[in-house]
Amino acid sequence: MSADLHLQSVSKRYPRALQDAVHQVSLTVPPGEILGVVGASGSGKTTLLRMIAGLETPSQGEISIGGQLAATPTRVVPPEKRGVGLVFQEGALFPHMNVVRNVSYGLHRHLKHQRLGIAEQMLALVGLSHKRHNYPHELSGGERQRIALARALAPDPKVILLDEPFSNLDPSLRTYLRDQLLEIVRRVGTTALVVTHDVMDALVIADRLAVFREGRLVQCASSEQIYHHPADAYCARLFGPASPAPRAWRGQSWLGDRTWIRPQELELHTQSQEGALRVRVNAVRFEGEHLGFLVRPITDTEGEEQLLVHLPLHQRERHPLNAERWLVFRRAAPEEG
Ligand code: ADP
Ligand code: MG
Q: In sequence order, what are the residues at sequence separation of 6 or more whose Cβ sits closer than 8 angstroms to the Cβ of residue 128?
């Protein structure tokens, strides 16, 4: 089963806190979508998931799942009645229960023989049928997370929430487990929110990204959209360095509505050409695969910011420090949306 999730102006302020942990977040996740939730530590990602799961009550706003009201500040549907599955950073399996009992734990409403059947089905789904009689301490970290996913999926939730499910695994296993978990979620077709502090994870697994900063939803869009049209500097820099577009270029037809520019979209020339901007070379740094040139527009207006330009290693001598050059924009990738 899969359903849409809708948040309307949801805020959460913890007791004694001076500001909201989550502030006026509105968000719609269509059925079957995998939404990546990214943002620095403390930006409210876990609080958001806990409100959706029913482990915290919103201070303001409404949450509905599959068109049914799940939470308002005064009316709260209990977690087990929401049809929401949860997987945390630490799988949090019950240590005294074997794998089958862990996986069938949430199936109170089923008859005993049905419970066993569903648990076996889920174990097959995550490829761990052969571990059915083992206890959590007999499993690897990756296996524990797969069991946690099986347990969360067993009651056939409408929405599944994964809070940094890969972050405690060693790097070699991480990518493998990440791809495996998400392949399973996609196959089951459940609507999913996946919190990760690694933007590369989010890029690979998610249909859209929701970017949080200080409790606010700053942007919710496809990764391409965020890459090319970031809502602010924070969103722009999620995917690597970016410089604000110089004032003289804003609104030019060849720049479109772009306000941020990637270093690989810029070139330095010794001769002027259409759209070129006069700049001075302020610094050059070796960045491994290329050189990073920091240049500043030479204009009468105050406060023009430096731009970072990536050029091939052999161009160091061509643009010495303090040289005046012409900066040219070359779009690196086709425009999205
Ligand atoms: P994230 O998951 O993005 O790291 P959290 O949702 O855990 O962020 O935290 C958001 C903010 O709420 C932080 O400032 C954090 O200190 C605060 N916070 C989180 N949980 C609680 C709690 N149970 N009581 C009080 N403050 C909390
Ligand atoms: Mg968190």
A: 99, 143, 146, 147, 150
What's at 151, amino acid-wise?
Answer: R
Which residue's alpha carbon is at the smallest distance from atom 22 of ligand 1? 14
Ligand nearest the Cα of residue 162 is 2
Give the ligand at the shortest distance from the Cα of 22. Answer: 1
Quote the distance between the C-alpha of residue 77 and its chain's center.
Answer: 27
Per-residue CA distances from 160 to 1, 154, 193 (Å): 11, 11, 6
Q: What is the CATH number of the domain that holds 117?
A: 3.40.50.300
pTM: 0.87
Q: Which of 11, 14, 38 to mutate to test the pocket of ligand 1 (most atoms within 8 A of CB)?
A: 14
The answer to whether position 312 is within a domain reads yes
Instruction: State how many domains the chain has.
Output: 2
Query: Does residue 253 share a domain with residue 156?
Result: no
Q: In angstroms, rounded to a whole number, what is the distance separating the alpha carbons of residues 182 and 127? A: 14
Summarised one tens digit per residue, pLDDT across range 179-234 is 888 888 898 899 999 998 888 888 888 999 999 999 999 999 999 899 888 999 99
* Shared domain check, 288 and 208: no
Distance 46 CA to ligand 1 centre (A): 7
